[in-house]
Amino acid sequence: MIFDTTTAIILAMLIPLAAMAGNMAFKNMPNLRDGFTFLCAVLTFGAVLVVLANEGNSVTSEFSLIEVFPGIDIAFNVEPLGLMFAIIASGLWIITHIYGVGYMRGNDEKHHARFFACFAIAISSVMGIAFSSNMFTLFLFYEILTVSTYPLVAHKGTPDAVKGARTYLAILIGTSIALQLTAVIWTYALAGTLDFTQGGILVGKVAGWVVPVLLGLYAFGIGKAALMPFHKWLPAAMVAPTPVSALLHAVAVVKAGVFTMLKVGIYIFGIDFLAETGASEWLMWLAAYSIIAASVVAMTQDNLKKRLAYSTVSQLSYITLGMALATSMGALGGGMHIAMHAMGKITLFMCAGAIYVAYHKTEISQMQGLGRVMPITFGAFLIGSLSIIGLPPLGGSWPKFLLMLGAADTGHLIIIGVLMASSLLNVAYLLPIVGRGFFRPLDDGAPTKRYEGPVLVWLPPALTALGCFVLFFYGGALQSFLLPIIGQ
Amino acid sequence: MAGTVSPHDAKTLIEQLPILQVLVPFCTAPLIVLIGNRHMAWLLAFVASVISLVISYVLLTQVYGGGFISYQLGGWAPPLGIEYRVDAANALVMLLISAIATLTLPFAYESVKDEIKAKDHTLFYACFMLCYTGLMGVVITGDAFNVFVFLEISSLSTYVLVAQGAGRDKRALTAAYDYLIMGTIGATFFVIGIGFLFMSTGTLNMADLADRIANEGTNRTIRAGFAFIIVGMGLKAAMYPLHLWLPKAYTFAPSAVTVLLSATSTKMAIYVLLRFLFSVYNPEFIFELNVMFLVFMPLALIAMFSASFVAVFQVNFKRMLAYSSIAQIGYMLLGIAMFNLSGLTGTMVHMFNHGITKAVLFMGVGALVLRTGSSFYNNLNGLGRVMPLTVAPIVIGGLSLIGVPGTAGFVSKWMLVQAAFENGWWFIAILIVLSSLLAVVYVWRAIEVLYLSEPAQGTKMAEAPMSMLIPMWILAIACIWFGVATDLPLGAASTAAEVLLSGSFGMVE
Amino acid sequence: MDWDFIAGHVNYWMFIVLMMTGLYIVVSSGNLVKKIVGLNIFQVAVFMLYISIGKITGGTAPIFPSNSKGYLEIDPSIVYSNPLPHVLILTAIVVGVATTSLGLALIIRIREEFDTVESDDLVKIEQQLTSADNKEHGDAMGGMA
User: Fold this and answer.
1) Contact (CB<8Å) B421/A177
2) Which end of chain A is more exposed for a tag (fewer CB within 10 A), N or C?
3) Is C134's CB within 8 Å of B166's CB?
4) Which of C122, C125, C113 minimizes the C-alpha distance to C29?
5) DSSP-derived secondary structure for A32-46
6) Where are the domains positioned within chain B?
């Protein structure tokens, strides 16, 4: 192959940093700057694809960059879940970058260079999270991700933005330092290692009350997974420009959270260990509650982005639920949901941004009839919604199916009920938006000429909507790709 | 190379390094006064500190893996003669002090020009060198009374340096006066403690003292001496509740002095505390007294929370950092109180890491003061956008102060939390992380002011001069470097902790 | 505690009384100069402690006589006092003098700037300055202070 895997992983982390440097260097040359970032995004994606071509879905041994503490290295390896996450994040970076350029220019936002530079650091740290081979490395990049996205959330600099960013930072840094760091060091004190190992590293090292408590420290400490009651940062972060919400708060940041959650469940505790001790049972109920409660809150939101944010809170809990079910099917379902939800939700967010760029509408109650003037956007929105709801032939149907299988395995029929109820709630809060757009008449005096905004703004969501279709047909392939994470 | 050196038999310059470490700055100070030119003064001071930095590094490489160098002053063998003794613990502290001094001097060049009258510059640098001599002497000496002498050399020059801030704010004078009173009481307490030790054992050499205390048992006099030494050094180290001199002194001292003090002076005191706790008195003695659990731990915890809490509500950036220093000293004391290898390693490494972290932060404030003439938050609005190169190191230092992973501050916090878990004190572990949340609050307030507030109308501020930017960036990069490549501080710190916990002076095994 | 014990430790009683007197003056006196004097008494107490412990009962000054050829003539039957504490205290006295002079110099500067050497007045002036700072800079922070 062109590069060996090690080089490719390092490149995947370094190229975004090059993009950052480029943004700073070409601060005042917008076309060169954005073109260079686009090139970097493509190259990053290429590097991740090289890893895929080299390793497939095998689990490689780690390579260490540097030893930080005795026995704890900054080290990376490839395993299917992380590789999938890296592919999604880097692939969607290309699309979001195109969209971001359109959005930022179409909307006359300021400080483009700073914006895209921070964006690039965030992507770099996501790559670090995806390929990290131990909990320490993961935690390191997790925190870098938090800090580097803070300027993005506060980007507008208005009092609202500052306040939102403060909430964002307070919850994410607060939970990760107070709870997650404690959990990580505690794990190290108990197990003597932090390496992600199939079957977990805590088996036989702990018993009794420590297991659920430690799991609790992780579950709440991974604030990015937006498990209730630590979900407030997600709606607060919606003050950010839409490309940030789209990539970071539908894909990179939140998915980094649930990805960490899955990693902890699968490789730190071990699915079988969790099942044996029953330590995750409470987490399962909490996730189920989170799913329903966030959906209900979503219904009450009139601000489109806020509604989508609460929808994300609810959907993220699917993945936590998958881990907490402590069965193979649950873990697989959770893993697949990372991909499927990412594709669906980014579509929805980009559509929301497109509506804002074209008509400066943020509230759902103002959107009647807009589907008539921007049919592509609303069409994409419909497809994204259906994928989130979980209807075939869209990608979102697979993980729900697997999660239900997992719930059936463990005999938790109520969880099946929760999942079904959640789908109905999804219908109730997503489809009316589309319905309002297509079937209500336009406001009096509103322009009736078809206008979708600049091409860079409506094309990307159309592409990702198409992706939702494609993923449905590759659902089986994705499932078998992920099989190694459950030891098969 | 480890072993005993008598100056008369020494063949190479390397063997003479321990005494040169003190002599170089000590001779520079009068030379500066004699030459009497303020540019030459700066140059001489800088050259001396560079030489001293090289010496520190060479010494550290010699004792990095364990062992010690004993240098007999004037060829008089200890315990009668004065001995300089270098082991991993003090070599690390010396490296920190000399590195900070070497970086502070270029920074001081512009800052001192701005904040102090030109006619005082020569004397300023002479005092700076004397203070530096004192710090080095305290750290390197193996003689208990010699510690007091060097301590007073550094303290007296520090009072003068703090008072130099009077050009900007007259409260520097009262700050220096208060510091003088408190510092002298502390030093006198310390010397009473030494006197008690001398009464019981008849020796002043630390290794000899350790030997006698360990082998001949303790009595009430020795225990009383212990209390005096702890209180005396606690005052110097700004150990809660003996910290009252610190906020004022740090706030009103000239920027360059604050950098030096915050990064080195309290660290030196903590080092002496460690040396006496573990090397002179032995771990068993302390364990029996239970002083760690009953005194150090509660005081450390109170310092961590109360000082951080006060820091949150400051309107002056510099003062905020001063309170944060008290809290961070709490971490170091907590590491001592853990009384295990990880805890002591944590303390040693936090001394180093917090030293560089606070240095970059205070330098950052100093640079802002140079440009805006104020360190109050409301005069610093939006400067992050106006002078990005100057403010970015402050952000990095701030992150390290919080202990964000990938920065130096994280390494020490990790060690401390790990130590707490090793002791089974999970409650303490939680308190440590909770108190770092307070650090998030006070650091982020500063960052919001610097980046998210609108700069005042028509603010056209130049970046800080190169002579400031370079040391700031070196320290900022060091904050990140030592958060990832932890070999040097962590390796030396764990050797030092082993040395200390073994109870003997400089000997592992 | 009999009389012999009390009388036998007279140097310590002196030390404690002097030390406490000195400390009390430092703490209680409002005048900066008096504080320095207190500090001096406090330090002198310590000097006394050191010097008194060097004394050995029946000991004489540790000076060795030399004969006409310049060789030392040491009589092993003579008991000498320990000279080391005296030497140490010589250093400590120097330190004490330096501290005192520095303290007095600071007081002169303080009087020039604040026009008082009473700590009560100084505290008042400083409080005014601090609250003025807080008012000026705290209000501008939007009451966040």
Assistant:
1) no
2) C
3) no
4) C122
5) HHHHHHHHHHHHHHH
6) 3-501
Cβ–Cβ of C92/B148 closer than 8 Å? yes
> Which chain C positions have a beta carbon within 8 Å of B198's beta carbon?
50, 53, 85
State whether B434 and A178 contact (CB < 8 Å).
yes
Domain co-membership, A150 together with A292: no
| Shared-domain flag, residues A211 and A286 | no
Identity of residue A11: L
What count of residues does chain A have?
488
SS3 for C119-130 is HHHHHHHHHHHH
Element counts in chain C: helices (H) and strands (E):
6, 0
> Tens digit of pLDDT for each residue in B37-55?
888 999 999 999 999 999 9
Both ends of chain C: CA-CA distance in Å? 58
Spatial distance between the Cα atoms of A317 and A288, rounded to a whole number of angstroms: 7
Bond before B241 cis per omega within 30 degrees:
yes
Half-sphere exposure of residue A37, counting CA atoms within 13 Å on the CB side?
33
**Contact of B149 with B165, CB cutoff 8 Å:** no
For residue C142, give the amino acid letter. Answer: G
Digit-coded pLDDT (tens) for B490-508: 888 888 888 888 766 544 4
pLDDT at C140: 52
The predicted complex's ipTM stands at 0.90
Which residues are bridge partners to B143 per DSSP?
B205
Confidence of residue C142 (pLDDT cuts 50, 70, 90): very low
* Domain, as residue range, for A481: 280-488
Per-residue H/E/C for B132-181: HHHHHHHHHECEHHHHHHHHHHHHHHHHHHHHHHHHCCCHHHHHHHHHHH
Q: Could you tell me if B316 and B251 are in contact, meaning their C-beta atoms sit under 8 angstroms apart?
A: yes
Task: Please answer yes or no on whether B406 and A144 come within 8 Å at the CB atom.
Answer: yes
Q: Which amino acid is at B268?
A: M
Do A329 and A387 reside in the same domain of the chain?
A: yes
Output DSSP code: residue A424. Answer: H
Query: Residue A182: its chain B contacts at CB < 8 A?
Result: 417, 429-430, 433
Domain ranges of chain C: 3-57+81-114
Between CA A43 and CA A34 the distance in angstroms is 14
Q: Which amino acid is at A39?
A: L
> Residue B68 — φ and ψ, nearest 5°?
-150, 160
Residue B221 touches partner C, C-beta closer than 8 Å: no
The tally of domains found in chain A comes to 2
Alpha-carbon span A4 to A473, nearest angstrom: 30
Secondary structure of residue B217 in the 3-state scheme: coil
What pLDDT is stored for residue C143 in this prediction?
42
Same domain as A103, residue A241: yes
CA distance A116 to chain B (A): 16
- Scored b (16 or more CB within 10 A) or e, A81-100 reads bbbbbbbbbbbbbbbbbbbb
Residue in C26, C108, C144 to test binding to B, most B beta-carbons within 10 Å: C144
Kind of pairing between the strands at A72-76 and B3-5: unpaired
Give how far Cα B391 sits from Cα of B407, B464, B468, Å.
17, 9, 12
> How big is the CA angle at B351 (ends B346 and B355), to the nearest 5 degrees?
140
User: In this structure, is residue A274 part of a structural domain?
Assistant: no
CATH topology of domain C3-57+81-114: Helix Hairpins (1.10.287)
* Any domain includes A272: no
Task: Return the SS3 of B3.
Answer: strand
| Residue C128 CB neighbours (<10 A) | 10
Please give the mean pLDDT across all residues of chain A.
Answer: 85
Torsion of CA A110, A114, A120, A121, to 10 degrees: -140
Q: Which residues on B lie below 8 Å from C82 (Cβ)? A: 202
Same domain, yes or no: A193 and A308: no
Residue A167, domain member (yes or no)? yes
Dihedral, B422, B427, B432, B434 alpha carbons, nearest 10: 150
